[in-house]
Amino acid sequence: MDQPLIPDVALVDNTEQRTPLVLVLDCSGSMAGEPIEQLNQGLQLLEQELKQDVIAAKRVRLLVVQYGGLDAAEAVGDWHDAMDFSAPRLLANGTTPTGKAVDLALARIEEEKQGFRQAGVAYTRPWLFLMSDGQPTDDWRVAAQRCREAELANKVAVFPIAVGAGARADALGEFSARGDAGVKRLDGLKFQELFLWLSASMKVVSQARPGGQAQLPAVDGWASVEV
């Protein structure tokens, strides 16, 4: 029998509608050096941009899931409203268990939605922002299918990002209902531009009504999204 969730104090104190964002970030050994440094700077930029927006600061909920090490995937802390979010300092090492990380992210999204319903807080469709610079090293295909099905059922919006020439865009495409067409390849290490786009998108989506459409900042193939 399911145990009732302990109410999140943030949801009691702040009853604004929420936009959940899970950042599923590749921290494998191939990200060592400049890539992980640029990624950390991008996370700090995202934190700053969201905190500066009065509405997004109260409505965007963030969770970071990192994967690497010895086929390990873990949430870095818990969900936080943007106004309380502190960008973690990520380190790079190990393998690329993409499937395990996505499974964890999907489970945490469903738990968070249950918490919203229990607290009577409205929410827009969660975003799963999946980033990798390599090839999955675990048994990832079942997780990819589960992720596609969740997107087709409007349970989540998936945004796969291929970092660098070594990233398997074809594998990342299997996590999205849009397939390869839904994958964006990061030009060089332009993490700052990417996170500026993400923060601008969160500002737009956080102001949209659940079930509607949001017009995203101009990026090829990601013009609008259901919320």
Note down, in words, how this protein is organized.
By secondary structure, the chain is of the alpha/beta class. The protein has a single domain, classed as Rossmann fold (3-Layer(aba) Sandwich). The chain contains 7 helices and 8 strands, in the order αβααββαβαβαβαββ. A hairpin with a 3-residue loop joins strand 2 (60-68) and strand 3 (72-81). The longest helix is centred in the middle third of the chain and has 22 residues, at 98-119. The chain is globular and about 40 Å long. The model has no long low-confidence stretch (mean pLDDT 91).
Strand content: 15-25%
Q: Tell me the span between the first and last alpha carbons.
A: 31 Å
Which radius of gyration do the C-alpha atoms yield?
16 Å
The total number of structural domains is 1
Annotation field: number of helices: 7
The biggest sheet, with number of strands, parallel, antiparallel or mixed sense and barrel status, is: 6 strands, mixed
Classification by helices and strands = alpha/beta
Q: Write out the CATH superfamily name.
A: von Willebrand factor, type A domain
Q: In the CATH hierarchy, what is the architecture at level 2?
A: 3-Layer(aba) Sandwich
Strand order of the largest sheet: 3-2-1-4-5-6
Helix-strand pattern: HEHHEEHEHEHEHEE
The parts where pLDDT drops under 50 for at least 5 residues are none
CATH topology annotation: Rossmann fold
Q: Could you tell me the mean pLDDT?
A: 91
What level of helicity do the residues show?
25-40%
